[in-house]
C-alpha cells in the first residue's frame, strides 16, 4: 500500500527553466510533508518542508505547494540548475507518529545545460 | 560538524549468512533511525531509537533483523540469516527530534547472493 506516490520516475528540463515535481498521498492523517534530495552514493538531504496549516512554503529557488483537498503537493525549482540533477523524494508524517516518515519512490531530475 | 558515519560501505554475502552494519550518529542527536532502501523504492523505516530505547520497530522483520543502540550513541543493525530480498541500501539517520534535522549517512549497500 503506497501511501505516498511519486508517479513520475524521471523528469528532464533545460537549465534556467522551471522544474515541477509532483507527489500524491492517500493517508488523510499526514500533516507534515518534506522533500529530500539524493545524489548517487550519498544519503538523502533535507530540502524543504511544509505543514498542513500552510499551502505554500518558499526557500530561495525552491517552493513547495500543498493542496490538501486533492492530497497533492508539488516542488517547484526556479531557475533549474545542472547541480539540481538528483533524485527527489517526497516524504510525509502524521501527527503523533514520532515524526515517522513515509517516503515516495522518488523522481530522478535531470537538468540539461 | 561531523556527519553520520556508517560502515561498511559495501558488503556482499551469500544467503543464510549473517551481516552487521554500524552507525555513529551526529554528536548530541538523541534520535536514531535505520532505513532500508530497495532499488527503485524510497527509504522504509525499520527501527527508530530515542536515546537507547526503541520508539518504533513495527516494520522490522524481527525473525531475522535485530538492532541495538548501546549507551544511546552508536547503533548496530544485524541480519541473521540473510535472504536474497534483503539486498538493499541500509541508511542510518539521526536527529535532535524533528524530521527537518534528520541527517542521513551515506548508507551501506548490501548484496545477498
* Helix coverage percent of chain B: under 10%
What structural class do the secondary elements of chain B suggest? mainly beta
| Uncertain spans of chain A | none
Helix content of chain A: under 10%
**Quaternary structure of the protein:** heterodimer
Provide mean pLDDT of chain B, rounded. 93
**How many beta-strand segments of chain B?**
11
Query: Approximately how much beta-strand content do the residues of chain B carry?
Result: over 45%
* Mean pLDDT value of chain A: 95
Tell me about the biggest sheet of chain A? 6 strands, mixed
The string of secondary-structure elements of chain A, in order, is: EEEEEEEEEEE
Shape of chain A: globular
Taking pLDDT < 50 over at least 5 consecutive residues as the criterion, the unreliable ranges of chain B are none
Rg of Cα set of chain B? 13 Å
Most extensive interface: A-B, 22 and 25 residues
Strand content of chain A: over 45%
Structural class computed from helices and strand pairing of chain A: mainly beta
Task: Describe the model.
Chain A is mainly β and 113 residues long. Chain A is built from no helices and eleven strands. Chain A has strands spanning 4-5, 10-14, 19-25, 30-38, 45-51, 56-59, 62-67, 72-77, 86-94, 102-103, 107-112. In chain A, strands 2, 4, 5, 9, 10 and 11 form a six-stranded mixed beta sheet that branches. A five-stranded antiparallel beta sheet of chain A has the order 1-3-8-7-6, with no helix packed on it. In chain A, a hairpin with a 7-residue loop joins strand 9 (86-94) and strand 10. The radius of gyration of chain A is 13 Å and the shape is globular. The N and C termini of chain A lie far apart (38 Å). With 113 residues, chain B is mostly beta strands. Chain B is 0% helix and 50% strand. Chain B has strands at 5-7, 10-13, 19-24, 31-37, 44-50, 53-56, 65-69, 75-79, 88-95, 103-104, 108-112. Chain B is built from no helices and eleven strands. Chain B starts with a strand and ends with a strand. In chain B, the strands form two sheets. In chain B, strands 2, 4, 5, 6, 9, 10 and 11 form a seven-stranded mixed beta sheet that branches. In chain B, strand 9 and strand 10 (103-104) form a beta hairpin. Chain B is globular and about 35 Å long. The model of chain B has no long low-confidence stretch (mean pLDDT 93). At the A-B interface, strand 5 and strand 9 of A face strand 5, strand 9 and strand 10 of B.
